[in-house]
Amino acid sequence: MLHIAAQKRQLKKDQEQIEKTALIRQEFTANVSHELKTPLHAISGYAELLENGMVREEDIKPFAGRIRGESSRMIRLVEDIIDLTKLDNGDAEMKREDCDLYRIAENAVDSLESRASAANVSIAIDGEDAPIKAVPQVIYSIVYNLCDNAIKYNHSGGSVALGIHQTEHNTVLTVKDTGIGIPEESRERIFERFYRIDKSRSKEVGGTGLGLSIVKHGVLIHNGKIEVNSEPGKGTEFVVTIPNEQEVIK
Ligand code: ADP
Prior knowledge:
This protein is of the alpha+beta class.
């Protein structure tokens, strides 16, 4: 009798979990549709004005620029969604390999160099070779997204400092900026999908609201952890700790 009661309880629990997952998926799909609809409406509106000859000759170029800007936003959003889906599904490409977090960070910094100089933010990397067994493209997106944010939410003339060091068991990555900071009450929520502290600033700097959820998910599949220290108005520091060796990948 007892056994049956326990089975029933487990079944109820499983059912609740399935319903919860379905609800999260539904919510995500609704958010994605909304986020894609906004730039699409803007593109369609600008194109209609151009088509109907409602735009003065000298305004044609800025209009084309806006269409390109909104299209880039959609591309970034779709790319982030693809990254998240791969992480959610534990994609077959997600193979652990011997790689070096320091080298990967150098590559990420290289590709962000022009964005940093356009924002007048300096970016420097300090550390040494950090061999780990990990999924290189996931490690790349962790470093890339953290540095990208450190540039986006910084001030002109500010800086970003990356640090990489290794202990016997862990590799620690720190990304420290001199930017706007994160208020205490938002520090947990920033890792949620589509959560932004200041939606218009995020939009202005080309944010999708998905960067940190990709980072968090990437850290978790490596059995790692992420911490955030911040002082509003002074800057933010993200500290990622990843075990050097991974027994099981979740
Ligand atoms: P987004 O694409 O909007 O940047 P993220 O998921 O990467 O989305 O980040 C979520 C929110 O967290 C951002 O909109 C921003 O408000 C805040 N944030 C992230 N990184 C930083 C940072 N280094 N400094 C200040 N705020 C940050």
